[in-house]
Design brief:
Blueprint: H1 9-19, H2 22-29, H3 36-43, E1 49-50, E2 65-67, E3 70-72, E4 76-78, H4 93-102, E5 105-108, H5 116-121, E6 129-133, H6 139-151, E7 157-160, H7 170-173, H8 197-203, H9 215-221, E8 226-231, H10 234-242, E9 247-250, H11 264-277, E10 285-289, H12 295-303, E11 308-311, H13 313-345, E12 358-359
Parallel strand pairs: 4-5, 4-11, 5-6, 6-7, 7-8, 8-9, 9-10, 10-11
Antiparallel strand pairs: 1-12, 2-3
The protein binds ligand FNR.
Ligand FNR binds at residues 27-28, 41, 79-82, 109, 111, 132, 160, 229, 251, 253-254, 256, 289-292, 310-313.
EC number: 1.1.2.3
Enzyme class: oxidoreductase
GO cellular component, one term: mitochondrial intermembrane space
């Protein structure tokens, strides 16, 4: 179907499913084990209802915000997803160009198909990029990746902490890794097992011994704000605050790691009241990702205290199906939905959003 027949993020998924290679679909779409968390990520949003406010002048709506101190036009960002060239021959730069056109922040994966320099060079003006970090056993490799990113103007370091080992995504395991994006494995290609899917092939890169003890090391090699991506309970958010970490991403890695881990929106609903009880709510920015497919999902997350949300698969699908115009349209649709959602909820700007705009009893908030 022509691009102008895509009217929401789900439409891109249906098209991508038909047009991408089998192995690509397996890697992009899969979740761990029985994919219960994968399904829950999106359906959790359906347990939250709005409490719209009427008779507010919403002629002008301001969707802009800041994330980690950087301005952005909307409160969502492109989260890190590895192996962009499985879906599009040009890889992640396609996402970069679209994000640049929309004032959207992009998180670059360590295991991107494009090199970090190619992505930085595809940037528009002072477009903001973050780096997602998989920590390698060889800390010199890690140090080189981090310091290079900082030198090239990267504005945040997101250390993935939910993947000491990659989860079992069986659709992916059944497919042989086709190597189309093999330049991602440039860091230590000899350790690669190509026989069982893309996730297995990249698993060898990651150091499972990573722990809280390593945080000072990261602080010693960079001035970028350090963010933990993949935190899943309130105790660990508090530990992050104790380690002077300025932000966390509540995430279950798009349902790709521990199956039956809770959705990020439910963790958020537990975390924020606890932080408020302890007077810690201003000490840390909390982001969430997983299953965000509608602007109403984003608005709910903001109401419950998220500073912003990450979106993964929908942009990969838009990229795979239609290239840069597809990703740009996906972003525009989401911006349009966001503006409509804000008007109908009765909020003029993102800082007006709060828990009073939602009924979250369905996820245990009373
Ligand atoms: C991911 N994700 C991910 N996360 C990360 O920290 N490093 C990575 O390399 C990847 N790679 C990756 C590949 C693919 C194909 C997917 C779908 C996801 C997880 C990602 O950052 C994010 O947590 C989820 O994708 C969010 O869920 P949605 O928006 O895809 O539902």
């Amino acid at each position: 179907p022509p691009l102008d027949q895509c009217f929401n993020l789900h439409d891109f998924e249906s098209v991508a499913r038909q047009v991408v290679k089998k192995g690509t679909w397996a890697y992009y779409s899969s979740g761990a084990d029985d994919e219960i968390t994968l399904r829950e990520n999106h359906s959790a949003y359906h347990k939250i209802w709005f409490r719209p406010r009427v008779l507010v002048d919403v002629e002008k709506v301001d969707s802009s915000t800041t994330m980690l101190g950087s301005k952005c036009e909307v409160p969502f960002y492109v989260t890190a997803t590895a192996l962009g060239k499985l879906g599009h021959p040009e890889g992640e730069v396609v996402l970069t160009r679209a994000a640049g056109g929309h004032g959207v922040i992009q998180m670059i994966p360590t295991l991107a198909s494009c090199s970090f320099d190619e992505i930085v060079d595809a940037r528009r003006g002072d477009q903001v990029l973050w780096l997602q970090l998989y920590v390698n056993k060889d800390r010199e490799i890690t140090k080189r990746i981090v310091q290079h990113a900082e030198k090239r103007g990267c504005k945040g370091l997101f250390i993935t902490v939910d993947a000491p080992q990659l989860g079992r995504r069986e659709k992916d395991i059944r497919t042989k890794f086709d190597g189309a994006a093999s330049d991602v494995l440039r860091y230590n290609p000899s350790a690669i097992d190509r026989s069982q899917g893309a996730a297995r092939a990249i698993s060898a890169f990651i150091d499972p011994s990573l722990s809280w003890k390593d945080i000072p090391f990261f602080k010693s090699i960079t001035k970028m704000p350090i963010v933990l991506k993949g935190v899943q309970r309130v105790e660990d958010v508090i530990a992050a605050i104790e380690h002077d970490i300025p932000a966390v991403v509540l995430s279950n890695h798009g349902g790709r790691q521990l199956d039956t881990a809770p959705s990020a929106i439910e963790i958020l609903a537990e975390v924020m009241p606890e932080l408020r009880r302890r007077g810690l709510q201003d000490r840390i920015e909390v982001y969430i990702d997983g299953g965000v497919r509608r602007a109403t999902d984003i608005i709910k997350a903001l109401c419950l205290g998220a500073k912003g949300v990450g979106i993964g698969r929908p942009f990969l699908y838009a990229m795979s199906a239609y290239g840069e115009p597809g990703v740009a349209r996906a972003m525009q649709l989401l911006k349009d939905e966001f503006e409509v959602g804000m008007r109908l909820v009765g909020a003029k700007s993102v800082d007006e959003l709060g828990p009073e705009f939602v009924d979250a009893r369905g996820i245990g908030v009373h």
